[in-house]
Design brief:
alpha+beta; about 150 residues; 4 helices; Aminopeptidase; seven-stranded mixed beta sheet
Amino acid sequence: MVTELSYFRPMDEYDLKWVLSTEKASYDFPWSQQGFTKVMDDGLAYILCDMDDQALGYACFLAVLDEIHLLNLCISPNFRRQGIALQALDKFKDYFVDSDYEKMLLEVRQSNPAKTMYQKLGFVEDGIRKGYYPVKNSPQKEDAVLMSWALL
């Protein structure tokens, strides 16, 4: 059964248990509760929902002047590979254009398959940040690909 994103809403403290559980199930190096509390305090953390108000994932951003930086986009394991992240970014693009942001920025692991999705949306590769991400059970670090997307 394919699920569709209907809307997003601000993340609040009642979402934290689910968000932290989803974060831990999704990443080798999950964000802490303090990290989510910080973006909630800034008003730039959102829960992605279907038409039945079920949480599908979340997104966290940081605003800097006329740019919006995507810090964390995570889809719950039960809803991955259904186009929800793509739908969410498309909705966020419209939302942030209306808020006068001109560009969305992100960094993504070199090995992350989501990089292809970002390119399909129109993100362009701006550079590489060497040794940015830790690698589980390794002293090595993985490069981050810096990407941007013109919102106008």
